[in-house]
Amino acid sequence: MDDYKSFSDIQIMNKVGDYDSKALEELYDRYSPILYSLIKKIVEDKTKAEEVLVDVFVIVWESKEASNIPADNVYTWLITLARNKAVDIKRRDENPEGMPEYNDDYEDSMIIPKLSKSIDPLDLKKALSVRDNFEEALNKLTDAQKFVLLLAYYEGKTHSEIAKQLNIPVSTVKSKIKLSLTNLKQNLVSGE
Amino acid sequence: MSNMESKELLQAKALGCLDPEDDAIITQLMKEDENFPWQELGHYQNLIAFLPTLFDVEIPDPEVKDSVARRLYELGEKIKAEKDGEVKQSTITKESETNKIVEDGFILEEEPIEKVEIPVVKEYPADESNIDGISFKDHGVNLQEPLMDENKVMQESLRKKQQEEPKTKSTPIKLKKEFKQKNVESYVSKFPDDPSFGKSNKIKRGLIIATILVVVTLLALVFVYFKLSSDIQENRDRIDMLQRQIGARIMMENFPTKISFCT
Predict the structure, then answer these.
(1) Are A132 and A192 in contact (CB under 8 A)?
(2) What is the DSSP string of B60-114?
(3) What's the burial of A60, exposed, middle or buried (CB within 10 Å: 0-12/13-18/19+)?
């Protein structure tokens, strides 16, 4: 197990691709706290969050995409996977009839992340190291910008759903989200 | 949608909040547009992934790790069961193939047994030609006349059928044999006085036999090749499945008492 601790995320992921259970265990040890915290924030229930976390690692074990993550960016892939899965569970609980059937195709297209081909490398350590700067950058956004951002990310609401909830035009929501992320990016770059 | 317009939706794509119609458009662009701003999309994907770092980190209960291990074990078992099912199915298929009749090295397909339905001969009561005031005699039906012995008719029709149709489809093979025999005889009859004919005929026969042997060997090689390929594939699948099972077992046996959070 000591050897695995020295492995990079992408090395671990490649071993998981070869069905190495010790590698999956190492990945679990590294990432389960942050993934669990994110999932719990979204589903707002301890038992459900635990179930989703289990589902996430089963997807990692089964997915062929897992061993094909671009640019050594296991962090973003796992965070996005956990977010997508948690949001899907939340939406199914809220509106069981309104959701499509959950099958392999659905999982492949809607749950498993498709990262950009040109994404920069990022791991947990690096992500945690910019935490303070990121918090500062986020706090510079207006309340409205933060609100739509959080509604979209944690609630899993789409443009039109946010528009309906806030009773504002969809175009306004689109521009708010665009602006909030553009500003967040600029604030982060200027703060570094 | 232009490249400019697609840029408008990049942030929302990274955030995962696009409506299905917009998502379909941008997914299409990702597949087709050579100038798709991948770099920018990547930046936003990473930016959004920073959000969970803001939480106070919670460590899941150790039982969750057990659950992961259990699920992986169950998954392995399920795959094993599916594989076993597939193997049984293929065995049954092979057995049914071997049920074909092999005659003179030729595989003859067994003819499906035709079921001849024998109609039930109803026994009519002696004097029921007038039931509820309706006379069958009035309609040209005489129940008192002895009905034709239907069993006899059936036997006759079966006998005719057997005469008409041979039991197996061996006729084409017989014809083929006869045809070959006739060819040789006609060939021989063309050269009755040629002293060298016997010799060349032997050579020809030898050549034919050699050709047949080569063809048979080639066919055997092809068969062996496909058989080995399928065996290798099957073994690969088994190894894959065993890896999953072993992996799951190892995980179950190695539950750690502590879960550390990498910082």
Answers:
(1) no
(2) PPHHHHHHHHHHHHHHHHHHHHHHHHHHHHHHHHHHHHHTSEEETTEEEPPPPPP
(3) buried
Residue B17 forms contact with A (CB below 8 Å): yes
ipTM above 0.90 for this complex: yes
Q: Which two tokens stand for residue B236?
A: 């690969």
The residues in A 43-72 lying below 8 A from B, measured between CB atoms, are 49-51, 53-54, 57-58, 61-62, 71
Q: How far apart are CA B85 and CA B83, in angstroms?
A: 5
pLDDT in tens, chain B (263 residues): 566 667 778 999 999 999 999 998 898 888 888 888 999 999 999 999 999 999 889 999 999 999 999 998 888 888 778 777 776 676 666 555 555 444 444 444 444 444 444 444 444 444 444 434 333 334 343 334 434 444 554 555 556 555 554 444 333 444 344 434 444 444 444 444 445 545 566 778 888 999 999 999 999 999 989 989 889 988 888 888 888 787 777 666 665 444 433 33
CA gap A82, A89 in Å, rounded? 11
Collect all residues of chain B within an 8 Å Cβ-Cβ radius of residue A25.
Answer: 65, 251, 254, 256
The 3 state secondary structure assigned to B124-170 is CCCCCCEECCEECHHHCCCCCCCCCCHHHHHHHHHHHHHHHCCCCCC
Strand partners, B131: B134
Class of the CATH-defined domain A1-122 = mainly alpha
CATH class, A130-192 region:
mainly alpha
